[in-house]
Amino acid sequence: MPKIVSYNVNGIKARLPRLIEYLDAEQPDIVCLQELKSSDDTFPEKEIRDAGYGAIWHGQKGFNGVAVLARGTNPVERQRGLDGDPDDTHSRYLEAEVEGLIVASIYLPNGNPVPGPKFDYKLAWFERLAERAEHVLAEEKPVVLAGDYNVIPNDDDVFSVKAMASDALMQPQSRAAYRALVSQGWTDSLRTRFPAGGVWTFWDYQAGAWQRDAGFRIDHLLLSPQAADRFVDAGVDKAYRGKEKASDHAPTWVRLK
């Protein structure tokens, strides 16, 4: 049963020991990484290959950056970047095929502060993602759209609605864009597994958020109907957030038949 993981590493060079440790211990089949903060040239290809994974990546110096890793095989690239904005220089989307399964690693813009150009960019990017998602859905293949969407979809996906009320992650427009995407026919795998919410994938470094379990859910794995038919389980490998020099996100995963 393949395990597909979404993992915002918050700087792949800083987190490389944690990432390799995770790959060795958990042996996931496919890993979609976000926020590499690494140029294409400085991506640690050798270390990842030594851990038994083929990789493709779409880097950017200092911020953003996405990758797809596959255990024992090489992901076949389908698309890097989204159509619809020729001026967009951000490395935020990478789509690949791994042994008949299509996966996309997605790093949606944060959008803060609200209102402002960064929030406008977030919503415009969301529209471009939805267009691509619709196109991929029409292929009627098993697809997993995995990534850091920077959206808290529901009130029960956050430790405190009040604390996050003014944040771009929880604005009505952000939530509406997420809902519109899902309603194309995608299944939110973590929501399916935990319909009552209360499951976090991110804990800020500030204000003792991890110690207080003051987190929220922004890492999502959306399944096409053909992938949803094979759904077995979903979860968060929460313990990895508590390790030394950990990312502020925990690896989030889905298992398919």
Automatic annotation (TrEMBL):
CDD domains assigned: ExoIII-like_AP-endo
Enzyme Commission no: 3.1.11.2
Hydrolase among keywords: yes
InterPro entries: AP_endonuc_1, AP_endonuclease_F1_BS, Endo/exonu/phosph_ase_sf, Endo/exonuclease/phosphatase, ExoIII-like
Residues reported in the UniProt entry to bind Mg(2+): N8, E35, D148, N150, D248, H249
Residues under site feature: Transition state stabilizer: N150
Active site annotation, chain numbering: Y107, D148 (proton donor/acceptor), H249 (proton acceptor)
Cofactor(s) the protein requires to work: Mg(2+); Mn(2+)
GO terms classed as biological process: DNA repair
Superkingdom of source: Bacteria
Family (UniProt): Belongs to the DNA repair enzymes AP/ExoA family.
UniProt xrefs under PANTHER family: EXODEOXYRIBONUCLEASE III (PTHR43250:SF1)
Listed name of the protein: Exodeoxyribonuclease-3
